[in-house]
């Protein structure tokens, strides 16, 4: 992996160059091993938090980790195109609109001891903007090259705080064209339900059960690209102890191995049904 400027990353994409890079402010990574018709994203994988913000933050390191999506990048690491956030959503949230990306409160709790100075906010919002410049360049290139694209928008959620039974996998589809892509959504839901987990974990998958797919990453791509489908795909945090901050690497590995097969199979189905016709 190399460190590249925003401009160099965009130029590489436009020239269809394969590369692994971290942007020069270390706010996100991108790797392109080959130009294919599908993209994997993990916008909430990051845990970095600017040191100049520490003293002013009321939330603990575990508070932040609890609401992030740890290991989601590792679950999709084997795929040809992966873009992932490095910074914590508590610094700025890539899945919120720019105007709301820097939180004042987070999950019912005030975030800052005193309001952030404007220059502190602007640093964060600039990182958010840079990420979406690259997203735009990337999806533009894939649509130009293939005529369409499917994006797997991978997240996780804290299942133990729900007071009812919740699925292992949730697909959020309220902001996509379900008349057009409904069969593709159902095929992905079915495939996820067949995943075999270790430790006796049962794989159940539902649509719009816990979350509805209202994130900015999905909306931004959907609104800007008419032939790209974004599948907001949430895994319950069965791969960790969410209260004690312990990762279960054997579960993460099992998910990665299953997605290594299932994800490209599903992307091929999308291509055959919606692009190759």
Please provide a brief summary of the model.
The protein is of the alpha/beta class and about 280 residues long. The protein has helices at about 5-15, 50-55, 60-65, 70-75, 120-145, 180-195, 215-225, 250-275, and strands at about 1-5, 20-25, 30, 40, 80-85, 105, 110, 150-155, 170, 205, 230-235, 240, 245. Helix 6 links the parallel strand 9 (about 170) and strand 10.
Quick tags:
nine-stranded mixed sheet, Aminopeptidase, 277 residues, N-FG_amidohydro, N-formylglutamate amidohydrolase, 8 helices, two-stranded antiparallel ribbon
Structure description:
InterPro entries: N-FG_amidohydro (IPR007709). This protein has 277 residues and is of the alpha/beta class. It has one domain (2-275): Aminopeptidase (3-Layer(aba) Sandwich), CATH 3.40.630.40. It has helices spanning 6-14, 51-54, 61-67, 72-75, 118-146, 178-193, 216-224, 249-275, and strands at 2-4, 19-23, 28-32, 38-42, 81-85, 105-106, 109-110, 149-157, 169-172, 205-207, 228-236, 240-241, 246-247. Strand 6 (105-106) and strand 7 form a beta hairpin. Helix 1 (6-14) runs parallel beside helix 5 (118-146) and helix 6 runs antiparallel to helix 8. The longest helix is centred in the middle third of the chain and has 29 residues, at 118-146.
Biggest sheet descriptor: 9 strands, mixed
- Would you report the number of β strands? 13
Could you say which overall geometry the principal axes of the C-alpha atoms support?
globular
Residue share in β-strands: 15-25%
CATH architecture: 3-Layer(aba) Sandwich
From the alpha carbons, calculate the radius of gyration and give it in angstroms: 18 Å
Named CATH topology: Aminopeptidase
- What's the helical proportion of residues? 25-40%
Number of helices: 8
Spell out the CATH superfamily.
Zn-dependent exopeptidases
For the residues shown, what is the average pLDDT? 96
Write the H/E string, N to C. EHEEEHHHEEEHEEHEHEEEH
Domains (count) = 1
> Which CATH top level class fits?
Alpha Beta
Pfam families: FGase
Protein name: N-formylglutamate amidohydrolase
InterPro entries: N-FG_amidohydro
């Amino acid at each position: 992996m190399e460190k590249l400027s925003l401009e160099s990353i965009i130029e590489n994409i436009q020239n269809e160059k394969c590369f692994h890079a971290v942007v020069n402010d270390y706010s996100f990574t991108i790797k392109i091993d080959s130009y294919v018709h599908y993209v994997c994203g993990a916008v909430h994988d990051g845990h970095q938090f600017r040191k100049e913000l520490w003293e002013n933050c009321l939330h603990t390191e575990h508070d932040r980790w609890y609401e992030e999506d740890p290991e989601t990048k590792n679950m999709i690491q084997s795929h040809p195109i992966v873009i992932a956030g490095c910074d914590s959503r508590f610094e700025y949230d890539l899945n919120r609109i720019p105007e709301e990306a820097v939180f004042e409160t987070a999950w019912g709790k005030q975030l800052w001891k005193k309001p952030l100075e404007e220059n502190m906010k602007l640093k964060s919002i600039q990182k958010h903007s840079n990420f979406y410049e690259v997203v735009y360049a990337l999806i533009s290139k894939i649509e130009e090259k293939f005529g369409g694209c499917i994006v797997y928008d991978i997240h996780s959620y804290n299942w133990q705080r729900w007071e009812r039974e919740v699925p292992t996998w949730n697909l959020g589809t309220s902001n996509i064209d379900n008349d057009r892509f409904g069969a593709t959504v159902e095929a992905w839901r079915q495939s996820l339900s067949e995943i075999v987990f270790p430790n006796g974990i049962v794989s159940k998958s539902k649509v719009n059960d816990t979350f509805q797919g209202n994130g900015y990453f999905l909306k931004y791509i959907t609104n800007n690209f008419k032939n790209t489908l974004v599948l907001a795909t949430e895994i319950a945090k069965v791969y960790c102890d969410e209260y004690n901050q312990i990762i279960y690497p054997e579960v993460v590995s099992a998910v990665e191995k299953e997605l290594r097969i299932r994800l490209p199979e599903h992307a091929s189905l999308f291509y055959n049904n919606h692009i190759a016709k």
